Amino acid sequence: MLLWQCLALFLLVTAHACKAHKCHKFTDLTPGHAFLGTRVRVKLLLYTRHDDTCGDLLSHNDLTQHPQFNMSKPTTFIVHGYRPSGSPPIWLNITKKILDREDLNVIMVDWNYGATNLDYFKVVKYTYRVADNITAFIKMMQNHGASLSSIHMIGVSLGAHISGFVGAKLNGELGRITGLDAAGPGFNGKGLEDRLDPTDAQFVDVLHTDIDFLGYREPLGHIDFYANGGTDQPGCPKTILSGTSYFKCDHQRSVRLFLDTVTGKCSTRAFPCSSYKDFLAGKCLNCDHFGDAGCPSFGYDVIQWKEALLKQRQLKYYFSTNAKSPFCRTSYKVDVMIWNKSERWGYITIKLYGDDDKEAVATIDHKASQFSKYTETELLAQFDRDVQQVKKVSMLFSTGKVLQPKRTLRILRVRLTHLEHKKPLCRYDVLLKENEDVTFRPYPCEESQF
């Protein structure tokens, strides 16, 4: 009899242990759910370094059930957006990547029941109810010792506005809100109380990647980044023949760009400018007003510029990316002075080579550049990768015109200045024949009359 009692006790303890360690996953629905429509249900899944792959389903009423939820640590909430297919987002690994970076609490807000609905505008109405749910939970966290200033909310699309609603309900005391391509439809033209805005947290940073379709066009935060001008992300389909990817690729790129900054794959400087066109023309490369820190880096680490940005007026910040990860580019200011008697118009391609002899390429072709005798033409060259020690440089000049004689560009001096290192490299007296690569070794620039 005693043996059976011991065995029953063992099975009971084991069952409780298994229940306590059950991994809860993000809700997986189908297009059928979207067709029928779903009502709001909010699940909060906790991830910590104790177990960064197993989600713990948090109670909305009793936090004592979750001893691993340490209120003395910062907490990051991840809030997704509209889910017309019902499937989980492809970027759910963001929780692990953040935990690889920092020891904190990461909470995935799963409101797939509610977000899955063919009626987008009904889902927009649901965002207020989701925000109420999260707000009540955060107030419970406060009662257990959590600080609002240690909370960071990362909202994707509709999730960006949900984060804003939560922040507003908490009187703007949240530490930080990051909006990743905040939704435009249903929010464009709305007042501050009905969308994300800078008063919703102590610091609000926003990325725009699809302002001409699914994203919000105007600035929403203390700093607003416009990747590739905020439209037409490199590598995304250009025609509807690509199917659903044509509609959502630009919008979804926001998360992929942000993830690169979480993992440390990329560090991309962004520059305040009146337009993307002026940025590409190299008219907005001065960051002296940020002091030694230089212009802000887009992404996870922009919080380091918080104090400086809070003193700045609301501006748009621009940067360009590669078509795939790692997305970051390396920027150089290129100054070209020619001694041709007549002016030249054309495009420049520059390649840099380091010790590994792998090339980094920048093609300056957003518009034809004008080159005039003894006049310095300033260009922005954005290379697809960084080269630590430049050993060789290759340049190619093209007019883009087939039905005219080949032109030459007689360069008196070319100067390449890395916008991070600030150590210019020069070369003098270079003859570029149209559509022919010329390779040379650059040298540290010397002071001259030029």
From TrEMBL:
InterPro entries: AB_hydrolase_fold (IPR029058), Lipase (IPR013818), Lipase_LIPH (IPR016272), Lipase_N (IPR033906), TAG_lipase (IPR000734). One of its GO terms (biological process) is phosphatidic acid biosynthetic process. The active site is at S157, D181, H251. Residues 1-20 form the signal peptide. The keyword Secreted applies. It comes from the Eukaryota. Hydrolyzes specifically phosphatidic acid (PA) to produce 2-acyl lysophosphatidic acid (LPA; a potent bioactive lipid mediator) and fatty acid. Does not hydrolyze other phospholipids, like phosphatidylserine (PS), phosphatidylcholine (PC) and phosphatidylethanolamine (PE) or triacylglycerol (TG). This is Lipase H. It comes from Kryptolebias marmoratus (Mangrove killifish).
